[in-house]
Amino acid sequence: MPSRRARGQDPAAEPLHRHALRLLRLLRREDEALGVSAARLSALSVLVFGGPMSLGALAEAEQVSAPTMTRLAQELEREGWARREVADADARRVRLSATPAAMRLLRRGRDGRLDALSAAIDALAPDDRKAIGAALPALDRLVQVLQQRASDARGDLPSRTGRRRLD
Amino acid sequence: MPSRRARGQDPAAEPLHRHALRLLRLLRREDEALGVSAARLSALSVLVFGGPMSLGALAEAEQVSAPTMTRLAQELEREGWARREVADADARRVRLSATPAAMRLLRRGRDGRLDALSAAIDALAPDDRKAIGAALPALDRLVQVLQQRASDARGDLPSRTGRRRLD
DNA sequence: CGATATAGTTAGCTTTGCTAAATATTATCG
DNA sequence: CGATAATATTTAGCAAAGCTAACTATATCG
């Protein structure tokens, strides 16, 4: 019945893609006021809620390349949101941690994007809010499937920037 | 009542944002194989399904600035996905239309992103698929709310291309 | 007609992503 | 032990996609 795809594609794919694109495009504007851009904020969030970690671990968590994370970390550091030190056990490794200011920023919900998104969600009808809430676990699993396939697709073996090895 | 927010933010805001970010980040990789990037594909999609339109209209539909759409249109044209002609009624205006090749591209579902997304959706449990499908109208309205607020926020009046001269 | 508004373009900057290659450090093996 | 390999990060350089400011060409209006 409904899962019969018209031309090989699930009917939800296109709208979901489109909505996600627009959502982020609209939210990007909120960053400007905050002075912390999307990529930085996202990395910072991982750092605040996940605790200090190496650049490689952060790059993996954020699904970006090592050089990209190097740059993001430099910017976060320069702006006072993160601090780096050499890892005890391994001098190659950097231990990046969020500063108290960053923790305050994130914990206080001063994130412009999320405030804007939150306000918009609140403006919806209760049924709409409910539908979105109900879809979140499914979206989470969807992202997991994609992530799994992406890493499967390019050589099962990692080698990117080190694999699962926290200290 | 039910939306008792912890710190002023709706609990759905953060996961929704995070999932959207990851989703697009993962899908972006599919573009490369196709040779049509995200922004171009999205604009092209509007063109294919919405019919020929001016650059201004397309910029508004895509929520990007006029120069950005100028560039996208040039690239689409150069790559053979779009064609331009001067509008009959108004020589300032450009009428951009999708080429047959673009229509084939989109209609055949040869879009790498959407194929990947579609495949991932299909790998989900039926309940998850259902939850995502059920949330789409709500997401649509969410984006509308955001869009509305964005345009309210900067200069009530439309005038999406011509930027108001400041004295 | 001339002033002003509109549609699009050009120029130039920023952010964020990438790959390839360099550097520093640690691990391993003969 | 020392040469070699692997790992973590950085540097350098490129591209996409976004923006604003300023310019050109065309319409419109008083």
Q: What does this protein structure show overall?
A:
- The structure is a homodimer of 167-residue chains.
- Chain A is 62% helix and 6% strand.
- Chain A has 7 helices and 2 strands; from the N terminus they run ααααββααα.
- A two-stranded antiparallel sheet of chain A has the order 1-2.
- In chain A, helix 1 (13-34) packs across helix 6 (112-122), helix 2 (38-50) crosses helix 3 (55-62) and helix 3 (55-62) crosses helix 4.
- The longest helix of chain A is centred in the C-terminal third of the chain and has 28 residues, at 126-153.
- Chain A starts with 12 loop residues before the first helix and ends in a 14-residue tail after the last helix.
- At the A-B interface, helix 1, helix 6 and helix 7 of A face helix 1, helix 2, helix 6 and helix 7 of B.
- Chain B binds a DNA duplex (30 and 30 nucleotides) through residues 25, 28, 37-39, 54-56, 64-75, 87, 90-94, 159, 161-163, 165.
The overall average pLDDT of chain A, rounded, is 82
Order of helices and strands of chain A: HHHHEEHHH
Number of helices of chain A: 7
How many β-strands of chain A, per DSSP?
2
Instruction: Tell me the strand percentage band of chain A.
Output: 5-15%
Radius of gyration of chain A: 19 Å
Q: Strand sequence of the main sheet of chain A, in spatial order?
A: 1-2
Structural class by helix and strand composition of chain A = mainly alpha
| Oligomer designation | homodimer
Ranges of chain A where pLDDT stays below 50 over 5 or more residues in a row are: 1-6, 155-167
The helix content of chain A, as a percent range, equals 55-70%
Q: Give the largest interface pair and sizes.
A: A-B, 67 and 68 residues
N/C terminus separation of chain A: 51 Å
What characteristic shape of chain A results from the CA principal axes? Answer: globular
User: What summary fits the major beta sheet of chain A?
Assistant: 2 strands, antiparallel
